Amino acid sequence: MALPRGYISHSQLRTYNECPRKYWFSYIEGIQVPCNEKVFLGEVFHAAIEHYFQLRIAGGAPDPSVVEDHFTSIFEAEAAGRPVAWEAPRRETRERGLAFLKHFLKHFGPKARPLMVEKELSAELPGSGVLLKGVIDLIEEDYAITDFKTTTSRWSDSRARSSPQMIIYKYLFDRSFGPLPATMKYEVFYGKKAANVRHQTLPVVAEDGALDRLLAMIGHVVERIGAGAFPANETAFCRYCDFRRECREKGPA
Ligand code: SF4
Q1: Does 93 share its domain with 160?
Q2: Closest ligand 1 atom number to CA of residue 235
Q3: What's the rounded Cα separation, in Å, for the pair 204 and 149?
Q4: Does residue 6 sit in the same domain as residue 107?
Q5: How far apart are alpha carbons 10 and 85 in whole angstroms?
Q6: 15 assigned to some structural domain
Q7: pLDDT tens per residue across span 174-231
Q8: Coil, strand, or helix at residue 47?
Q9: Taking a C-beta distance cutoff of 8 angstroms, is the pair 164, 124 a contact?
Protein backbone atom coordinates (compact mmCIF):
# COMPACT_ATOMS: atom_id res chain seq x y z
CA MET A 1 0.00 0.00 0.00
CA ALA A 2 1.34 3.43 -0.95
CA LEU A 3 1.35 6.31 1.54
CA PRO A 4 -2.17 7.79 1.40
CA ARG A 5 -0.97 11.36 0.85
CA GLY A 6 2.18 10.49 -1.06
CA TYR A 7 4.37 11.61 1.85
CA ILE A 8 4.92 11.10 5.55
CA SER A 9 4.79 13.88 8.17
CA HIS A 10 5.19 14.34 11.90
CA SER A 11 1.43 14.32 12.51
CA GLN A 12 1.04 11.09 10.50
CA LEU A 13 3.88 9.46 12.45
CA ARG A 14 2.39 10.59 15.78
CA THR A 15 -1.04 9.25 14.83
CA TYR A 16 0.33 5.88 13.65
CA ASN A 17 2.46 5.50 16.78
CA GLU A 18 -0.52 6.34 19.01
CA CYS A 19 -2.72 3.80 17.29
CA PRO A 20 -2.39 2.33 13.76
CA ARG A 21 -6.20 1.85 13.67
CA LYS A 22 -6.65 5.56 14.30
CA TYR A 23 -4.28 6.27 11.40
CA TRP A 24 -6.48 4.05 9.20
CA PHE A 25 -9.64 5.98 10.07
CA SER A 26 -7.98 9.35 9.67
CA TYR A 27 -5.71 8.95 6.63
CA ILE A 28 -6.94 5.89 4.70
CA GLU A 29 -10.71 6.20 5.18
CA GLY A 30 -10.41 9.99 5.49
CA ILE A 31 -13.16 10.24 8.12
CA GLN A 32 -13.64 13.90 9.09
CA VAL A 33 -14.44 14.60 12.72
CA PRO A 34 -15.19 17.96 14.34
CA CYS A 35 -12.06 19.31 16.01
CA ASN A 36 -12.27 20.30 19.65
CA GLU A 37 -11.94 23.92 20.71
CA LYS A 38 -8.30 23.51 21.80
CA VAL A 39 -7.21 22.45 18.30
CA PHE A 40 -9.46 25.12 16.79
CA LEU A 41 -7.93 27.83 18.98
CA GLY A 42 -4.41 26.71 18.04
CA GLU A 43 -5.24 26.96 14.33
CA VAL A 44 -6.72 30.46 14.63
CA PHE A 45 -3.78 31.63 16.79
CA HIS A 46 -1.34 30.32 14.15
CA ALA A 47 -3.26 32.08 11.37
CA ALA A 48 -3.12 35.38 13.29
CA ILE A 49 0.61 35.23 14.02
CA GLU A 50 1.29 34.16 10.43
CA HIS A 51 -0.49 37.37 9.34
CA TYR A 52 1.62 39.35 11.82
CA PHE A 53 4.92 37.86 10.59
CA GLN A 54 3.99 38.33 6.92
CA LEU A 55 3.43 42.03 7.61
CA ARG A 56 6.78 42.19 9.44
CA ILE A 57 8.63 40.39 6.61
CA ALA A 58 7.11 42.88 4.16
CA GLY A 59 8.69 45.66 6.24
CA GLY A 60 5.62 46.72 8.21
CA ALA A 61 5.23 47.42 11.92
CA PRO A 62 1.73 46.06 12.52
CA ASP A 63 -0.45 47.73 15.10
CA PRO A 64 -1.38 45.11 17.75
CA SER A 65 -5.07 46.05 17.50
CA VAL A 66 -5.04 45.20 13.76
CA VAL A 67 -3.64 41.73 14.48
CA GLU A 68 -6.14 41.22 17.32
CA ASP A 69 -9.03 42.23 15.00
CA HIS A 70 -7.68 39.79 12.42
CA PHE A 71 -7.73 37.02 15.05
CA THR A 72 -11.33 37.82 16.00
CA SER A 73 -12.56 37.88 12.42
CA ILE A 74 -10.87 34.53 11.59
CA PHE A 75 -12.21 33.03 14.81
CA GLU A 76 -15.81 34.06 14.12
CA ALA A 77 -15.72 33.15 10.39
CA GLU A 78 -14.23 29.71 11.04
CA ALA A 79 -16.50 28.99 14.01
CA ALA A 80 -19.54 29.79 11.85
CA GLY A 81 -18.31 27.75 8.88
CA ARG A 82 -17.21 24.42 10.33
CA PRO A 83 -18.20 22.03 13.10
CA VAL A 84 -16.32 22.47 16.36
CA ALA A 85 -16.86 20.30 19.45
CA TRP A 86 -16.95 23.05 22.10
CA GLU A 87 -15.93 21.48 25.39
CA ALA A 88 -15.33 25.00 26.77
CA PRO A 89 -17.75 27.80 25.75
CA ARG A 90 -17.01 29.55 22.46
CA ARG A 91 -16.77 33.05 23.97
CA GLU A 92 -14.43 31.88 26.72
CA THR A 93 -12.24 30.15 24.11
CA ARG A 94 -12.07 33.30 21.99
CA GLU A 95 -11.07 35.42 25.01
CA ARG A 96 -8.37 32.90 25.97
CA GLY A 97 -7.02 32.98 22.40
CA LEU A 98 -6.98 36.78 22.40
CA ALA A 99 -5.09 36.73 25.70
CA PHE A 100 -2.49 34.40 24.14
CA LEU A 101 -2.19 36.73 21.17
CA LYS A 102 -1.83 39.87 23.34
CA HIS A 103 0.88 38.13 25.33
CA PHE A 104 2.62 37.15 22.08
CA LEU A 105 2.37 40.71 20.68
CA LYS A 106 3.78 42.22 23.87
CA HIS A 107 6.51 39.77 24.83
CA PHE A 108 7.57 37.80 21.75
CA GLY A 109 6.59 39.43 18.45
CA PRO A 110 8.59 42.69 18.66
CA LYS A 111 11.82 40.80 19.51
CA ALA A 112 11.49 38.30 16.65
CA ARG A 113 13.41 38.79 13.39
CA PRO A 114 11.23 36.83 10.96
CA LEU A 115 12.77 35.48 7.76
CA MET A 116 10.21 32.83 6.75
CA VAL A 117 6.82 31.93 8.18
CA GLU A 118 4.74 28.73 7.75
CA LYS A 119 7.53 27.43 5.54
CA GLU A 120 6.77 24.05 3.94
CA LEU A 121 9.87 21.93 3.45
CA SER A 122 10.28 18.40 2.07
CA ALA A 123 13.05 15.93 1.38
CA GLU A 124 13.32 12.39 0.03
CA LEU A 125 14.68 9.99 2.63
CA PRO A 126 17.90 8.33 1.52
CA GLY A 127 17.54 4.74 0.38
CA SER A 128 13.74 4.61 0.35
CA GLY A 129 12.71 7.60 -1.77
CA VAL A 130 9.96 8.28 0.81
CA LEU A 131 9.01 11.97 0.89
CA LEU A 132 9.13 13.58 4.34
CA LYS A 133 7.26 16.90 4.71
CA GLY A 134 6.95 19.51 7.42
CA VAL A 135 5.73 23.07 7.87
CA ILE A 136 7.91 25.22 10.14
CA ASP A 137 6.01 27.98 11.97
CA LEU A 138 8.88 30.49 12.00
CA ILE A 139 12.49 30.74 10.78
CA GLU A 140 14.31 33.85 11.97
CA GLU A 141 17.23 35.74 10.45
CA ASP A 142 19.68 33.91 12.75
CA TYR A 143 18.14 30.58 11.57
CA ALA A 144 16.32 29.99 14.85
CA ILE A 145 13.53 27.50 14.16
CA THR A 146 10.45 28.08 16.29
CA ASP A 147 7.27 26.10 16.78
CA PHE A 148 4.39 27.77 18.64
CA LYS A 149 2.03 25.89 20.93
CA THR A 150 -1.14 26.97 22.70
CA THR A 151 -2.18 24.77 25.57
CA THR A 152 -3.84 24.72 28.98
CA SER A 153 -0.83 23.84 31.13
CA ARG A 154 2.89 24.30 31.32
CA TRP A 155 5.14 21.95 29.33
CA SER A 156 7.91 20.00 30.98
CA ASP A 157 11.48 20.41 29.70
CA SER A 158 11.60 16.69 28.90
CA ARG A 159 8.50 16.95 26.73
CA ALA A 160 10.27 19.46 24.50
CA ARG A 161 13.58 17.60 24.56
CA SER A 162 12.08 14.27 23.51
CA SER A 163 9.82 15.66 20.78
CA PRO A 164 10.68 14.25 17.33
CA GLN A 165 8.89 17.16 15.64
CA MET A 166 11.86 19.53 15.93
CA ILE A 167 14.37 16.89 14.83
CA ILE A 168 12.27 16.42 11.68
CA TYR A 169 12.20 20.20 11.13
CA LYS A 170 15.97 20.54 11.61
CA TYR A 171 16.57 17.61 9.25
CA LEU A 172 14.34 19.21 6.58
CA PHE A 173 15.99 22.59 7.17
CA ASP A 174 19.50 21.15 6.70
CA ARG A 175 18.44 19.17 3.61
CA SER A 176 16.85 22.30 2.09
CA PHE A 177 19.39 24.99 2.95
CA GLY A 178 22.57 23.07 3.83
CA PRO A 179 23.89 22.69 7.37
CA LEU A 180 23.57 26.06 9.09
CA PRO A 181 23.93 26.90 12.77
CA ALA A 182 20.18 26.65 13.34
CA THR A 183 18.77 26.51 16.86
CA MET A 184 15.41 25.02 17.78
CA LYS A 185 12.84 26.02 20.37
CA TYR A 186 9.22 25.83 21.36
CA GLU A 187 7.33 28.96 22.39
CA VAL A 188 4.49 27.68 24.54
CA PHE A 189 1.55 29.93 25.46
CA TYR A 190 -0.51 28.32 28.20
CA GLY A 191 -3.31 28.96 30.64
CA LYS A 192 -6.82 27.71 31.34
CA LYS A 193 -8.37 31.19 31.56
CA ALA A 194 -7.80 34.47 29.71
CA ALA A 195 -6.86 36.17 32.99
CA ASN A 196 -4.10 33.68 33.70
CA VAL A 197 -2.02 33.34 30.53
CA ARG A 198 1.70 32.53 30.70
CA HIS A 199 4.50 31.86 28.24
CA GLN A 200 7.61 29.68 28.26
CA THR A 201 10.54 29.26 25.88
CA LEU A 202 11.87 25.72 25.65
CA PRO A 203 15.12 25.23 23.73
CA VAL A 204 15.49 21.87 21.99
CA VAL A 205 18.91 20.25 21.74
CA ALA A 206 18.85 16.93 19.92
CA GLU A 207 20.55 14.10 21.82
CA ASP A 208 23.31 12.11 20.14
CA GLY A 209 21.83 9.57 17.75
CA ALA A 210 18.37 11.17 17.84
CA LEU A 211 18.24 11.67 14.08
CA ASP A 212 19.33 8.09 13.32
CA ARG A 213 16.69 6.75 15.71
CA LEU A 214 14.08 9.00 14.14
CA LEU A 215 14.91 7.93 10.59
CA ALA A 216 14.78 4.27 11.66
CA MET A 217 11.36 4.87 13.25
CA ILE A 218 10.08 6.58 10.09
CA GLY A 219 11.32 3.66 7.97
CA HIS A 220 9.55 1.21 10.28
CA VAL A 221 6.24 3.11 10.20
CA VAL A 222 6.33 3.49 6.41
CA GLU A 223 7.03 -0.24 6.06
CA ARG A 224 4.10 -1.11 8.36
CA ILE A 225 1.75 1.18 6.43
CA GLY A 226 2.98 -0.38 3.17
CA ALA A 227 2.21 -3.84 4.60
CA GLY A 228 -1.34 -2.74 5.51
CA ALA A 229 -0.74 -3.17 9.26
CA PHE A 230 -3.35 -1.12 11.15
CA PRO A 231 -4.01 -2.98 14.43
CA ALA A 232 -5.97 -1.32 17.22
CA ASN A 233 -3.89 -0.13 20.16
CA GLU A 234 -6.42 -0.13 22.97
CA THR A 235 -5.36 1.96 25.95
CA ALA A 236 -6.97 4.16 28.60
CA PHE A 237 -6.69 7.05 26.11
CA CYS A 238 -9.28 5.41 23.79
CA ARG A 239 -11.96 7.33 25.69
CA TYR A 240 -10.56 10.56 24.16
CA CYS A 241 -10.26 9.13 20.62
CA ASP A 242 -12.25 10.91 17.90
CA PHE A 243 -12.87 7.55 16.20
CA ARG A 244 -14.12 5.49 19.16
CA ARG A 245 -17.59 5.11 17.58
CA GLU A 246 -16.15 3.85 14.28
CA CYS A 247 -13.74 1.62 16.16
CA ARG A 248 -16.59 0.07 18.17
CA GLU A 249 -18.85 -0.36 15.14
CA LYS A 250 -16.28 -1.70 12.70
CA GLY A 251 -14.40 -3.95 15.12
CA PRO A 252 -10.75 -4.96 14.87
CA ALA A 253 -8.81 -4.14 11.69
S1 SF4 B 1 -10.66 3.93 20.04
FE2 SF4 B 1 -8.59 3.30 20.69
S3 SF4 B 1 -8.13 1.44 19.51
FE4 SF4 B 1 -9.85 2.48 18.49
S5 SF4 B 1 -8.96 3.79 16.91
FE6 SF4 B 1 -9.17 5.04 18.75
S7 SF4 B 1 -7.22 4.88 19.84
FE8 SF4 B 1 -7.32 3.19 18.37
Answers
A1: yes
A2: 2
A3: 14
A4: no
A5: 24
A6: yes
A7: 999 988 888 999 999 999 999 999 999 999 988 889 999 999 999 999 999 999 999 9
A8: helix
A9: no
